[in-house]
Amino acid sequence: MSYHLLTYSLLFLPAVMLLYQLTPQKVRWITLLAADYIFFWLISGGLIIWMLAATLVTYVCGRVIAYVVEHSPAKGKELVKQKRVILGIGVILTLGMLVVFKYLKVFGITFIAPIGISYYTLQTISYMTDVYRGTVKAETHIGRLALYLSFFPQIMEGPISRYSETAHPLFSGKQLEFHNIAFGYQRILWGLFKKMLIADRLAPAVIKVFSGYENYDGSAVAVGVVFYTIQLYMEFSGCMDIIIGTGEVFGIVLPENFRQPFFARNASDFWRRWHITLGTWLKDYVFYPVSLAKPVKKVAKSVKGKFGIGVSKFVAPTAALFCVWLSNGIWHGAGWTYIFYGMYYFVLIFIENITEAPVKKFAERKNINMEGVACKVLRGVKLFFIVNIGELFFRATSVAQGFSMLGRIFGKFHISALLESNLGMDVYDVALAFVGIVIVLLVDILHEKGVSVREKIASLRLPLRWGVWYAVILSVIILGAYGAGYTVVDMIYAAY
Amino acid sequence: MKINKNVVKSVGFLLGLFVLLLAMSAVFHRKNFVNVYDRESVERKINEVDAEKDNSLEVLFCGDSECYSSFCPTLLFSEFGHTSYVCGTSAQRLCDTYTILEEVFKTQSPKVVVIETNCFYRGAKSSGDSNDSVLNFLTNRFSVFAYHSDWKNFVGSFTGKGTGKKEKNDLKGFIVRNSVNPYKGGRYMVECEDEEEFPTDTYTYLDKILKLCNDNNTKLLLISSPSPKNWTYARHNSVKKWANQSQVGYLDLNLQNNLGIDWDTDTKDGGDHVNYAGAKKVTRFIGAYLSETYGLPDLREEQDYADWKENCKATYDLEK
């Protein structure tokens, strides 16, 4: 079972909707939880036991923290210390499961991981930390917590939601509404369009280039890398559309994970628009704790004494930034390419941070309009290179392969060789992928301007409205990259 | 009242969609190549072979990517003087093999047809074999799902890039892969009595292909290319059993120690396919086997095959 299969959107989801609607409102959460666990079971079978264990640990940790707060005679720092110990045990237990399943392979010990462990573990940590911080009340109903951790559309690829965002709406058993179903399915359809029409169409070229780059001219390698970036965006954001659309069907607002990332101003802005929920999670649970940690403050103080405030003001944010990007890299997997990927963005964002003010001053002095067309174009080109080089290393099997590919792009680039390269895509595939990308780009431009395309379509007269949706459905059916000659690619981010 | 209105709208929308699917299925309906899985590849291959001189090919190689990675016709000609063509296509199903052979036999009279056996386990269904059961259901009921990729043919017929164009392939269907990614899995052909059954329609198509070859006085030979990722002793046993029952030759190169495959250097993808270094070893081995077993003539000095000689010169540049 996977979100991009029609079995999910046309069989599993309607069956859950029907049962959900037939169940009395008070116990609808049970139907939803049953659907969550069946979905999990269909993919990971008996490994669901680890999901249940994580849920239990999280619940108990929250309850114990609440108990200590209410009943412990300790106050002030002593109380914080007690809470911290309980939180530490909870985090070690849930994070420990993630480490065992995901990272022990570094030492040659391999286990098949439960699906979504990277995602629900982050949700367990955020919940326990929020209870520790007192920003949410410890959950008394284990069903509500279990629903929050295991909601079936989120389990494979996120988005990583917070307890305060989804736990209560999920539990409330809100009645299904026609508007939500229609809008939810429209979003699912848009996700299928991106995945089946564009991402899976580009996949053969990406596989060919990354598995045999030595056989290609630098121009073809560059095209393969750009195709991978586009494939990843279409695939991940497309799956997010399916996931968020599913939530919408049940009236649940799941957090957005993408916000037109290619319109970003720089690398840090890109990461505020790409895999948003991972970024905000790392900000709240890594960046702030590290930058406010006593040892970091101490170092900043000593730097201030030696080098002045101009330098010391960067110490805490830079230490925190380093931890964020190291965590980001490691979260993606136990491989040097991921750590390199994280460090790549750390260096870039660090440079952006320290050069931001001087660049601004320089522009003012020289009367350069930073919002002018030329600057925007330059920024766009810079971001294009930054993102594609990052994705090259992210997808490469080793850092050495990444550099080797990069060397080929810059050292052996002959545009004339591109037409002779066999990238596994015929002229129709290339043309169709191009048209699909342009359509997504246009929709992204409208979204960037704050226009809701679905609302616009919904405001059309019925024949026109239906015509639009029929056209999208038929384009997916007729032009989708499935069946003979194509391979439907598994969801990329479900593997992380 | 509002709910009823929405229900009516929904039913109306779905009915409209149903009618559209029926209409599109009428458009995406095939008169020929009905039982072909990958029409585009099949047509391309038929057109390629069509570009060859009539009755010039002695051996045809069929199968999936194992086939076009392992057998190098230009090398076979330059070292043994046998003309051949790789009719293998990516993920080829036996239904496609059958159609290709049926068409190729109209212009060629090969003495031997070689089928690489990895495709036996792909099944031979012409449609509806993904792991998406709803998609399979729809594929079996609406031909627009099965033949949707035919839009390329429609567009091609307007742009002049459509099918039917003879396209000569100098490497005779072989695809050169020079990259190296070693196989580190150790010994893989562990002798056993187990058999891994073919999908049922594989038997149907194998029988059809055998009959087609017999009708054209062509010998059928099954070859399993070296591939630790794909091949097992249980698969070997099943192929051997069918070959023995049908009195067809079978050569499992995974069991040939004297082939000399070095899994550190001769595979491009960790033991899935051989690279060009491996293909040379495979081609030399089967070249000797074909000469000896089927008595194929050496055509290197024949004037009619001068263009083959030219192509073979290019073969020596393949490693560069």
Detailed description of the structure:
The complex is a heterodimer of chains A (496) and B (320). The mean pLDDT of chain A is 91. Helices cover 73% and strands 0% of the residues of chain A. Chain A is an all-alpha fold. Among the domains of chain A are: 6-175, no CATH class; 177-254 and 398-486, no CATH class. Chain B has 320 residues and is of the alpha/beta class. Chain B has a single domain (37-129, 162-315), classed as SGNH hydrolase (Rossmann fold). Chain B is built from twelve helices and five strands. Chain B has a five-stranded parallel β-sheet, with helices on both faces. In chain B, β4, α10 (233-246) and β5 form a beta-alpha-beta unit. The longest helix of chain B has 26 residues, at 2-27. Chain B starts with a helix and ends in a 5-residue tail after the last helix. At the A-B interface, α1 and α21 of A face α1, α2, α6, α7 and α8 of B.
Q: What's this, in brief?
A:
The complex is a heterodimer of chains A (496) and B (320). By secondary structure, chain A is mostly helical. Chain A has helices at residues 6-22, 28-44, 48-71, 76-103, 117-133, 142-150, 163-171, 178-211, 218-249, 267-271, 276-291, 294-307, 309-312, 315-332, 336-365, 373-395, 399-411, 415-418, 427-448, 453-458, 462-479.
- Count of discrete domains of chain B: 1
In DSSP terms (H or I, runs of 4 or more residues), the helix count of chain A works out at 21
CATH architecture of chain B: 3-Layer(aba) Sandwich
Largest sheet of chain A: none
Please give the oligomerization state of what you see.
heterodimer
Shape of chain A: globular
Q: State mean pLDDT of chain A (0 to 100 scale).
A: 91
Give, in order, the helices and strands of chain A. Answer: HHHHHHHHHHHHHHHHHHHHH
Largest sheet features of chain B: 5 strands, parallel
Percent of sequence in beta strands of chain B: 5-15%
Overall pLDDT of chain B: 88
Strand arrangement in the largest pleated sheet of chain B:
2-1-3-4-5
